[in-house]
Amino acid sequence: MPLFKVFGITTLDNLRLEQFLSAQLQTVTASDLLGDVFTIGGHSGETIVPILNSWAKNLTKEEYQALVHRVQFGGDEVVKAKNGKGSATLSMATAAYRFASSLLTAIVDGIIVDEVGFVNLYTLNGVDRLPDFITSEVDYFSLPLKLSRDGIESVSFPHDINQHEFSMIHVALKKLKRDIAKGVNFVSGPKL
Hints:
By secondary structure, the protein is α+β, with helices and mostly antiparallel strands. 45% of the residues lie in helices and 17% in strands. The chain has a single domain, classed as L-2-Hydroxyisocaproate Dehydrogenase, Chain A, domain 2.
C-alpha cells in the first residue's frame, strides 16, 4: 500500500547533478546516471546534498568540491549568465517534464519509477528507518522514492554516504530547519 500522494519536486537538482557530473566525467551520459546519483535534503543552496555513490571516486577533491558547489548553486549560475534578467525557467520546464513523465509512467503503465521528492517524514510508514539525526531535526526532507500508480511506494535513505556527504547533511539540516519554520509560519499566517 502506498505511503502518501503529496510531495514536493526536487527533480531539478537531480537533473543538474546528472548533467554536471556527466560533463565532468565525459565517459557516461546524464541519462545513464539517473537513479544512480541523486540529491537529498532541500532545494536551495547548501540544503541540496549531492549523493554520488561510487562515482565520487572518479573525481579529484577539487573536482568534487566544484561539482557540489555547482549543483547547490546552479540556479545562480543561470541568473548570472542572463545578467540578472531571468531565471532558470528552461531548466525547471525540463525538470517538470521529467517529473510528469515519471508520474505518467507510474500511473498509466503501472511501472514503479525511481524519483526524488521532498516529503513530510511523519506521514511515512516506517519513519524509524530514517536516521534519528534527521527525524529529530526536521519534518520535511528530500529523499529517493519509488512511485507507483497509487503514489509513493517507498522512500529510502542512502546508506553508503561518505563522510563529506554526512557533513553536508548536517549543514543542510540547520538551514532546512529555519526554511521549514519560515514556510510553515507563512502558510499559517494572515494572507492580507
